[in-house]
Amino acid sequence: LMAHLLNAHGLVVAVADGLGTSIENWQPGDVIVQRHHLQTPDNQGGHYYLQTGAYWLDTMERWKTSSEDGDSADSILIPEIVR
Fold it and tell me: Could you tell me the sign of the dihedral formed by the alpha carbons of 78, 21, 62, 6, in that order?
């Protein structure tokens, strides 16, 4: 799973990718909660966005997502965060 903090210009300023369990252990109905700790550069305030999603580690290929309106993408962008 990925968590990328983007600045107001869309540049990645912090990354916290990882998954705390192997997918071989997943069972139908499992709920996975993943926590990532991200810090802004030099703890600077400003406008940021959180980009999240999942990818295959061996190929780095991102998993496709789809929204309720049918749009598809390779990540989800969380609305603006003001720090």
Answer: positive
